[in-house]
Amino acid sequence: MNIWFATNNAHKKQELQAILDKPLKIPAEEGINFNPEETGNTFCENALLKARELKKLLKGKNDLVISDDSGLCVDALDGRPGVYSACYGETSGIKLTSDEKNILLLNELKDNPKRSAFFVCTLVLLFDFDRFYIVQETLNGEIVNNKVAAKGSGGFGYDPIFFLPDFHRTLAELSTEEKNNISHRGKAGKIIAGLIKNI
Length: 199
Fold this sequence. Notes:
The protein has helices at residues 10-20, 43-57, 98-109, 176-182, 184-196, and strands at 3-5, 64-74, 116-128, 131-143, 162-164, 169-170.
């Protein structure tokens, strides 16, 4: 039985594959056109939407589908960018790089002393359209004070501006093993791994 991951993000695939210790297939690598519109208002709604959409595209294959919806919630910004983390700051179809999104977020926060934030990861393990598990986990931290404090070349997305007080480093400065042990996706992925262990 194949396990599909409902994303075209190679970074997410690499990260989740290491956590699950099982090979994953993603649509882009298998020639499947997968680009669902994420219309949900919550991480759970979007994750389930993506899992069901890929299951439909697989046309009855008896394969498992895992999907992920995740994002960064900044307390001083009333939880933004939240479910819109992937398209934060984008208008009229103009895409921003991760660095551009990070700079935009730092500029929006300015010198606000409230820097608390958390990552959310919702994973769906879908067996069939109405048969699934949903797991949601978080990782608490702080947004760095400025671009100079953004550090690290590991991870992706908002990781360089997400500071972990307990580690005295940003998420991007952690090793892959360290990140997978404590991250929102790592914690959720371990629960999913337990569910598929004997499959």
